[in-house]
Amino acid sequence: MSLNIITNDSEKCEIALDGLYDVYDPEVGLNVVDLGLIYQIDFDEAEKKLDATMTLTTQFCPMGESITSNVTESLASAYPDWQINVNLTFEPPWDYSKISPEGKAFLGR
Fold it and tell me: Which helix (H) or strand (E) holds 52?
């Protein structure tokens, strides 16, 4: 898997990421995966629970609630019978180094 996303199931994580490429930070115009906002996605097959840990570009991101909600909806769409938990963290804080090479190219960096 590309990027630095921690997971306990690479195959399921790829499926989850497929949908997350369609979730954008509207202020930046880049998806949450290439922006490096997704830190971890873990799966509990027995309990049908998906736990995702993500961040935002800033703690005071005005679109934070919308982005988090869209991530939850995307994961629920990929895993419709699963309980989805999206946890927001600011440790470690986001910075430009977390942007994928594709994201940097898109942003012209």
Answer: strand 49-54
Q: How far apart are CA 4 and CA 99, in angstroms?
A: 10
- Collapsed DSSP state (helix, strand, coil) of residue 15: helix
- Determine how β-strand 6-7 pairs with β-strand 83-88: unpaired
pLDDT digit string, tens, across residues 3-32: 689 999 999 999 999 999 999 999 899 999
Put simply, whether the predicted model's pTM sits higher than 0.85 gets the answer yes
- The whole-angstrom separation of Cα 42 and Cα 83 is 12
CATH dotted code for 6-94: 3.30.300.130
Residue 42 buriedness (CB in 10 A; 0-12 / 13-18 / 19+): middle
